[in-house]
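User: quick one
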Amino acid sequence: MPRSIPHLLPVLALILPIACAAVPGGRGVDTGPYRDEDALEAALRSLAGESGGTASLASIGVSRAGRPIHLLRLASQGPNPPDERPGILVVAGLEGTHLLGTEVEVEAARALLAARGKDSAVDRLLAETVLYLVPRASPDAAIARFAKPIVERRGNLRPVDDDRDGRADEDGPDDLDGDGAIVKMRFEDPEGTMVADETDSRILRPADPLKGERGRWKLEPEGTDEDGDGKTNEDPPGDARPDRNFPQGHPEHESDAGAHAASEPESRALLEFCLSHRNVAAVLVYGRHDNLVQTPGDADAQAGEVRGLTTKIPKGDLPILKEVGERYREVTGSKAKGEKADEGGAFAAWAAFQFGVPTLAATLWKPDLENLPPASAPASAPATAPASAPASEPSGKDEALEEDRKRLRWNDAVLGGSGFVEWHEVAHPEHGRVEVGGWRPFVLSNPPPAEIRAIAEKEARFLAALAGFLPRVKVSEARVEARGGDVFSIEAAVENAGRFPTATEMGRRTGKVRPVRVRLEIPEGAAILAGEKQVLVPFLTGGGGRREMRWIVRAPAGSSGSLEVSTDRGGRDAREIRFEERTPR
Amino acid sequence: MIGIPLLIGALAGSVLPAGAAQAANRRRAEIAFNRFYDYEELIGHFRRLHEAYPALTRLESIGKSHEGRDLWILTIANSGTGPEERKAAMWIDGNVHGNEVQGGEAALYAAWYLLENHGRLEAVSRLVDDRVFYILPSQNPDGRVHWFAAANDPNSSRSGKRPLDNDRDGVADEDGPDDLDGDGNLCQMRKRVPDGTHRLDPDDPRVMVPVEPGKTGEWILLGIEGIDNDGDGRINEDGPGGYDLNRNWPSDWLPDYVQFGAGEYPLSHPESRAIADFLLAHPNVAAVQSFHNAGGMILRGPGAQERGEAYPAADERVYDRIGADGEFMLPFYRYMIIWRDLYTVHGGFVNWTYEGLGIFSFTNELWASPQYSGGKGDLDPKARLKWNDLLMLGEEFVPWHEATHPRYGAIEIGGMKKMTGRVPPPWMIEEMSHRNAAFCLRHADAMPKVEVEPLEVEPLGEGTFGVTATARNLGLIPTRSGRASGKRLGRPDLLTIAGPGATVVGGGPLPERFRPESVSLLEDEPARLVLEQGLGSHERRRFRWIVRGTGEIAVTYDAEKGGIATARAPLR
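Assistant: Done. Structure below.
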């Protein structure tokens, strides 16, 4: 499979017909092709409808507010039914702020479908394996992007009493300036602890009393104190984050982690999907986590034997992640470092440590802060800002502050300033006058729409490469020898032609992957004289991992039986066995 | 022994006219507590109780088991004395393990006792009028039905009936035990061999004795009755179900490879999910009792040593007080901590109700083997059979008899039946039930109940008043357990002050009784105090406000688990 990738490249480039619709000119971040609920469903429907049966659309459940959680399955005609082939589950949109993953899944699916018949690797991927795509696992969260005003929300709409005052969801954000987006507000206050950064006055940073600084500003989210408790926006609508709700390292009783592990319909939908699809042999999550650009190293692995719950990658599985990560970087060239995968009730953590499959995570995109033009005064900077400043000695040695500065330079140079709302004065019911400004919602976690096409193209190529890693069992040998008197001996072997083992070390530890099952079916009137009717092989390693077995059978001459191998994650195979009398040599 | 005079009434039989002339020993619903009931009979009795006391009870299904049976709950609440959701409630359940049946009878007894003694005994009337009881006789109807209906042994049918591929061969539940002799029991198989591991006791050949090292016996034991149903060469390796409904709860849940029987994820079973949904929708539940068998234990969490930090010292003191009374009320039972005194449990029910919901919760293991001898120690196998001969007239034991086994050839089958060992003999069910039900009532009586004492209104001149309120918890159990306040479970308590003609200038908690100036003035919302800690065990807390205006002022204390109480006073 990997060899074919170069061929795939040009094909994909040609056929990506993305709806990277025109970017409306002028100011403001355009919503571009980022799809709301209806547009996503329409796109998936049309993909399925036009796929000639290769793509099928289903739902794996509904969100807390009743929105369907879509599943697009890609599989063409092949020797085995789709749900009995090794599968890749790709999950996006677990966190409401990461809209990009959804778009990449849809466009990658489109690319793969269009490459059918043009690229043998894609044809093989679709015929021998199956792709399960869940483009938006938490729809309630994502719709916040398409509501007015736009606000970032990571979780669903479970009412949560965030501020513990006995009322839920009573003080959310308010669009003070009516511009349709919730950003920040700042106001001067005797108790203020922040000062404007000398390098870029759009940034507020904590005052440093040791340098003789005194705080001047308070920085709060854009809004008012609806419930009169002295706090602003401290209890917004929702939310429980499905990606903090899975039962691996669940942060129980944290306010955004759900009522208990697996309490949210979104997390249960994914759990039930996986548990009813034991053929899923790899999981890929698009979102906040990343273990593909930043491959786990030896320090991330579990040394020695573990008792109790496994929370680190077993050493035996580390090479899998290293190799796949290398291929990912090679195929996609991505440098988008996300959060290092942790437990914290994340889906990826559950998939890795309880479902026991190789679990991969990619953030897909980050603002490119490394190749910025030299700093210059942003055209739209307020008059109070210093004229310019490669500040000789920035007081903030803080990396976060330096990152903030770079992000604003990126905003000015790449987005033409459209990602950051310049601070401007607005009347406020409690504070008199405030300044409203700051990063527009979603801008820092989702690229300008024009960049989506290229990302999806590369991810499609990686999916094709990943399919080549999946375990694939076959009956590699089945020799029957007549021993006289209707007695036959059978020597057979099964092997795994894929790269992943049929069960990884973690898969074996969890017990979630059943052994490879080899079954000898004999014809009517035959009997097994020696050997088990069904041989259970704990697992087969990748790269031709093989197991031989023998039987002695009495069978009517001229009859036939079969040898069948079936697995949870490596597909199945069968071979006919003919009992033919021949003259012994 | 309160139960004994009640039973005399059972003989009288007839339905009574209501009113003061009601004979003290007559009952509206006669139920015999000298036999075990299958699920249908058990629920039938709950239905009769509901029909006999329609004003005090509600019978509802809160969900379905895997096989589609209703999970019936009886609610006992007197709507005439206030709305159910504003009263502290006690949850009682049994039989989460299908074979641990007597919890169902004990739960039935608790319901029966409460209803029959309402209006008769002051202490019971108070509980029925001021409190609520949610009684679920079986958490696992499928397991109970199967245990009664099918051939079983004392330990089988513990699981629910969802098929599980225990031997991981690709097929679920395909090789369970088999009642080879068709007598309705699953007993032991033994075979005579020249190099056996056991011999027969010379005094009682029904008893199998292991031979000493180096010696040879005439018999080997071959396990529970069964054959190799799936032809894989193994016997009874994949029976019905094979999981543990009491390891499927969210607190400290760990997957199957760490905690056997855990299920796929917390609340993955329809039974546990339905029960959890009910409890999450009833935040007034302030006490939990779960009935299991056996061993004579009053258990509480933590279920695992590393969860020790989840039990603050103040909560442990409450547990210890109730546990000590339990030991007094339940001879042969010991008050124990699950991980320390029994074994480690991850994801147990009472661990979740306490650690996840903040409710004081006990599991009682009903029936202890020293009860066979009335406290003279455990009976050895020979004495146990003699006990069976003399007190049970032989009912408990299947004599060894010959049978033919497809793999082992000539064997013998025999041994103790299912209704032995883990359950009391039928004629001891009633005492077991009464003592355990009474323990529930003791626990229920400890639940929090808030009141606001008469307000102290102090005129400060020119329409200004100092108002001091004292809120009090009458219960041993705090309105917010240390666990609940520490982990912010449930809603915090609320204390409000309001009057149609009054304005609250400021106020807050009053830490020092005789120094009104010590009032801790709140910056925001002084008329609505949010009390995460609630009121502790029997605690009184004072609050003071400066109020301007006229007319009546009302102070209300509102606790999810301790009810709601208001005190009013005129501003003058």
